[in-house]
Amino acid sequence: MTEEKYTLKHAITGFVIAAIIILISGTVLTFSGDQIAILTGLGSSFVGSFLIATSTSLPEVVTVYVALKLNNHNLAAASIFGSNLFNLLILVLCDFLYPGSILLAASPTNIYTGGFLLLSSLVVTIAIFRAQTKRLSIALPLLMLLFYASSMVLLYLLR
Question: What is the DSSP letter of 70?
């Protein structure tokens, strides 16, 4: 029988330290994004939706990539949907804490971003539940890239 390297106390301590580092880094990232938006004139919605969203999604991309390399398609799909659902849960919780309605206070740019996100999620859902054919497996990622590129162009033009 092998001896455990870590105790539960060590694991909890490591988790709390990592969570604090992530909270601090996320806060610094948002302030940095605001400064980038101000200095470049790109607009905070564009910088937030493009640069910050991309940088915070990179760990999820790696997770999905590794899951696909391990031929675990269920884990890849669960990671994508779980992350999206968790982000929606955060939005719901923020709506309770925000005075008034957070969706009514959202800028039109955020509404367009949400619309493109819904369309992209629909494409992913179709990809998961349809039979995988060669033509379908090529068309759906291209459609996703088209939605993403279109939304970034629209966000840039609306800044």
Answer: T
Both tokens of 74, joined, read 């269920």
Structural domain spans, the chain: 1-41, 43-158
Instruction: Average the pLDDT over 94-122 and give the result.
Output: 80
> Quick one: tokens of 105?
């206070």
**Residue 49: count of CB within 10 angstroms of its CB:** 22
**Amino acid identity at 149:** A
Please state the pTM of the whole predicted model: 0.61
Own/partner pairs for 33-42, CB < 8 Å, 24+ apart?
41/159, 42/156, 42/159
* Closest to 125 (Cα-Cα) out of 87, 88, 81, 91: 81
Which residue type, as a one-letter code, is found at position 69? K
In this predicted structure, the answer to whether residue 136 has a pLDDT above a threshold of 60 is no
